[in-house]
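Key result, reporting period 2: structure in, sequence out.
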């Protein structure tokens, strides 16, 4: 996440291929992350006032509070600088979620891609839901499963990937066009 902060400050993105297209997804969480960061700052100030007579405890809590604020900002920065990436030249679609998820989907394995706004997501085997603000806006159905590594390194085979995109129509059109171009020799 610290690398995400650096890239965000430098206004760069991670993993954007030359000739590829990037599709952000962080706009849907910006207000929530700002609100959470604001609450953390207010909590830090209030704890400083409450613990001013106990300097050792005050310093420990202050370090934890600063770490929490950096963590919240870093998490949002990681979402901003690691967008979804469509690389027609490489024949892949990368669906990402901050630093936690990076699924590479070969274009030839995509059976269909369409806009689908969903606000409820049940845990189903073989499906990967990457909601932002409790919603997904793009559904990618696969002809063959792809392997997704979970946060703790467990392998999961997924046949359906749902994600959020700030411009779901643009992502769907770009993937369809890349698939058509990819199928032509």
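The corresponding designed sequence is given below.
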């Amino acid at each position: 996440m610290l690398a995400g902060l650096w890239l965000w400050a430098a206004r760069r993105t991670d993993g954007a291929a030359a000739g590829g297209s990037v599709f952000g997804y962080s706009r849907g969480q910006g207000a929530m992350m700002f609100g959470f960061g604001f609450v953390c700052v207010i909590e830090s100030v209030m704890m400083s006032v409450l613990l001013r007579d106990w300097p050792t405890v005050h310093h420990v809590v202050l370090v934890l509070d600063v770490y929490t604020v950096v963590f919240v900002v870093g998490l949002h920065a990681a979402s901003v600088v690691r967008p979804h990436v469509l690389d027609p030249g490489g024949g892949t679609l990368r669906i990402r979620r901050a630093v936690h998820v990076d699924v590479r989907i070969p274009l030839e394995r995509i059976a269909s891609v369409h806009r689908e706004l969903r606000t409820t997501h049940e845990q189903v085997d073989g499906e990967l839901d990457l909601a932002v603000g409790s919603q997904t806006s793009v559904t990618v159905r696969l002809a063959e499963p792809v392997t997704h590594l979970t946060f703790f390194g467990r392998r999961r085979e997924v046949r359906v990937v749902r994600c959020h995109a700030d411009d779901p129509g643009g992502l769907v059109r770009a993937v369809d066009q890349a698939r058509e171009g990819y199928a032509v020799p």
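The helical segments are 2-9, 30-50, 55-81, 168-183. The longest strand covers residues 136-149. This case is discussed further under Risks and Mitigation.
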